[in-house]
Design a protein that fits this description.
With about 500 residues, the protein is α/β, with parallel strands linked by helices. Helices cover about 25% and strands about 20% of the residues. The strands form five sheets. A nine-stranded mixed beta sheet has the order 15-14-13-7-12-9-8-16-17. Helix 7 packs antiparallel against helix 13. The radius of gyration is 23 Å and the shape is globular. The termini are far apart. The protein binds nicotinamide-adenine-dinucleotide.
C-alpha cells in the first residue's frame, strides 16, 4: 500500500518520537536549575507556523538546534523545511503542534510561534505550562483574555518570553521614551497613530463557494480552536489577517509595532473607554478603514513629568490624523508604513512606524538615549540570552509578556470597539475585570452581512442584509474570551 506524503510523515514523526534529543535543561544547564547556560550552549528550538514570517524568525536563532517544525500547510512551508535537512531526515515535521509537544516535550527548550493570530494562545499557553520559553509573533493573541492568561502563565512558570514586535529592542523606542521622560515635549494629552495597512483584502462578505484544500494543507488544524468554516483559499496563507475568526485586521496587525513606544513612554495600562467607527462593518471580515479612540486615566508622574489623562486615536485603511500646525509642507507623515504624533504641551514629537526616526516639530534635536538599556544583540538574540539566564538573574526582554501582554490587551480591546460600533456609544472598559460595563444584560445589536448595491433603471438601489438581532453582552463576552472548538483548551488562569 502506498502512503501519501502526509501519512508517511505522520507515521515517521511518531517513530522518531522514540529518540529524545537532550535539551539544555536535562544537561543541568538551564536557568531553572539555578546554573545559567554558557553563551556557547545551544538551545533546542521548535517552530510552529514556518511558511511565512516564522522562517525568518528561526533564521535569527542561527547557531541553535532547530529540532522540529510544525505547519498546517506543507506546500507553503516547503522552502522553510528545506532549510533544516536534519529535521526532514529524522522526520520531525508535524501538522499538529499538540502531537509535536507530545512527542518531543522532553527535548524542547524554546517554542517559536508564527501562526495566524487565532492560534497563538493555544500554542504558547501549553508550551509555557510545560516550562518552555516562548517567542510569539505579534499580536500576542486574538483576545484580551488570552493576553492576560499568557502574561500570568509566563510569570508563574518563570520562562523567558518575547513578542515579535522587534522594534521594542531598537534605539528609536528608547529615544522616544527618554525624550518624553526628560520633559522636553511637556505633558502629553493626545497621541494619534496610523498605519497604511491593510494591504490584504478586507471588507468582504464570507465566500459562499466551498473549495477543497490541497492535499498538503490540514484545514482542520488551521481552524484549530476557531469555529468550523468550510475551506476557501481566500483565508490562508497570509490573508487570514482580514478575517475576524483568524486575524485582527489592520489594528491588530500593526498596532503592536506602532503603539509600542506610546504605551512604554506614557506608561499605559488599561484604557477606561473606547469608541470605534469604520467603513461598512460586515460580520466576518474587518472593514477597509477604521478609527478607534481610546481614553486613558491620569498615571503617576515619571521623573516628575505629569502623566495626565490621555486620548490615543488610531487610524488605518487610508485614514490619517490631520497634519499638526507647523508641519513642513511636502513631508510625508507615513514613514515605513505608518506613524505617531505625540501632542505635548511644549513640543510635538513625530515617530515613524516601528518607533523609527523620531523628530521634533520645533526643529530641536532629540538627545541620544543613555539611561535605558541598549540592546546590542537585537530582539531575537536578546531573547535567546534571556532563555539561558536563571529567572532571578534574567535581564527582562524588551517585549517580555509582562509588557507585551498589557500592550496586546489594549490593541485587541480596540478591535472590539470596531466590532461593537453598532451599539452607537462610547464603551466603558473595566480592564481589571476584562468587561465593558455599559452593555446591559438585554441589549441587542445586529451587524451587516452584505452591503448590496446596484443601479436599477438609472437609480442607485441599496440592499443591505443584516443578521437578526442578537444579545450584545453575550457577543462581547465571546469576543473577550472565546469558546474554543472541541480539542482545544487553555490552562486555568493562575
Ligand atoms: N514581526 C513582524 O514584523 C511580522 C511580519 C509578518 C508577520 N508577522 C506575524 O507572524 C505571524 C504569521 O504571519 P505570516 O505573515 O507569516 O502569515 P502566513 O500565513 O504567511 O504564515 C503563517 C504560517 O503558519 C502556518 N499555520 C497556520 N496555523 C497553524 C497552526 N495552527 N499550526 C501550525 N502552523 C500553522 C501557515 O500554514 C503558514 O505557513 C502573524 O502573527 C503575523 O502578525 C510578524
Amino acid at each position: 500500500m502506498s502512503l501519501s506524503r502526509r501519512e508517511f510523515v505522520k507515521k515517521g514523526a511518531a517513530a522518531s518520537a522514540a529518540f529524545t534529543i537532550l535539551p539544555a535543561h536535562v544537561l543541568g544547564m538551564r536557568g531553572d536549575s539555578g546554573r545559567p547556560l554558557a553563551p556557547s550552549d545551544k538551545l533546542n528550538i521548535v517552530g510552529v507556523g514556518v511558511g511565512g514570517r516564522g522562517a525568518g524568525v528561526l533564521r535569527e536563532f542561527k547557531g541553535h538546534n532547530i529540532i522540529a517544525l510544525c505547519d498546517v500547510d506543507w506546500r507553503y512551508s516547503e522552502k522553510a523545511f528545506d532549510e533544516y535537512p536534519d529535521v526532514k531526515l529524522y522526520q520531525r515535521l508535524y501538522y499538529d503542534f499538540r502531537k509535536m509537544y507530545d512527542d518531543l516535550e522532553e527535548s524542547i527548550d524554546v517554542v517559536m510561534c508564527a501562526t495566524s493570530d487565532h492560534t497563538h494562545a493555544v500554542i504558547a499557553a501549553q508550551a509555557i505550562a510545560m516550562g518552555k520559553h516562548v517567542y510569539v509573533e505579534k499580536p500576542l493573541t486574538h483576545t484580551v483574555y488570552e493576553s492576560r492568561l499568557l502574561t500570568k502563565l509566563a510569570d508563574k512558570h518563570k520562562v523567558a518570553t518575547q513578542m515579535g514586535n522587534q522594534c521594542a529592542s531598537d534605539d528609536g523606542v528608547r529615544k522616544v521614551c527618554e525624550a518624553i521622560w526628560s520633559g522636553m515635549i511637556g505633558e502629553v494629552t493626545k497621541v494619534e497613530a496610523f498605519t497604511d495597512r491593510p494591504i490584504w483584502p478586507q471588507g468582504l462578505p464570507r465566500p459562499v463557494e466551498e473549495q477543497t484544500p490541497h492535499s498538503e494543507l490540514d484545514w482542520d488544524s488551521f481552524l484549530g480552536p476557531a469555529p468550523y468554516r468550510p475551506y476557501h483559499s481566500i483565508y490562508t496563507p497570509w490573508n487570514w489577517r482580514g478575517w475576524w475568526d483568524f486575524g485582527t485586521g489592520a489594528l491588530g496587525d500593526m498596532a503592536c509595532h506602532i503603539l509600542q513606544p506610546v504605551t512604554l513612554a506614557l506608561n499605559l495600562k488599561h484604557a477606561v473607554s473606547v469608541l470605534g467607527s469604520s467603513t461598512p462593518l460586515l460580520t466576518d471580515c474587518a472593514p477597509n478603514a477604521q478609527r478607534v479612540h481610546f481614553k486613558f486615566p491620569a498615571r503617576e508622574p515619571i521623573n516628575n513629568i505629569p502623566m495626565p489623562a490621555l486620548s490615543v486615536i488610531w487610524y488605518d485603511g487610508g485614514l490619517r490624523p490631520d497634519l499638526p500646525e507647523g508641519w513642513p509642507e511636502g513631508r510625508d507623515l507615513n514613514h515605513h508604513g505608518g506613524g505617531v504624533i505625540f501632542h505635548g504641551t511644549r513640543d510635538t514629537l513625530i515617530v515613524g512606524c516601528y518607533g523609527s526616526d523620531p523628530w521634533l516639530l520645533s526643529g530641536n534635536e532629540l538627545p541620544e538615549p543613555v539611561s535605558t538599556r541598549k540592546i546590542t544583540d537585537g530582539h531575537y538574540m536578546d531573547f535567546i540570552h534571556a532563555c539561558k539566564e536563571s529567572p532571578e538573574n534574567r535581564r527582562v526582554c524588551a517585549s517580555d509578556f509582562s509588557t507585551a501582554g498589557p500592550l496586546n490587551e489594549m490593541v485587541v480591546m480596540g478591535v472590539l470597539a470596531v466590532r461593537l460600533q453598532t451599539l452607537n456609544k462610547e464603551l466603558l472598559w473595566d480592564g481589571e475585570r476584562m468587561e465593558f460595563t455599559n452593555i446591559s444584560d438585554n441589549e441587542e445589536m445586529k451587524i451587516m452581512i452584505e452591503d448590496g448595491f446596484s443601479i436599477k433603471d438609472g437609480h442607485p438601489t441599496f440592499d443591505k442584509t443584516f443578521t437578526d438581532y442578537f444579545n450584545a453582552k453575550t457577543f462581547a463576552q465571546e469576543l473577550i474570551k472565546h469558546n474554543y472548538r472541541e480539542g482545544y483548551t487553555l490552562p486555568a488562569m493562575p
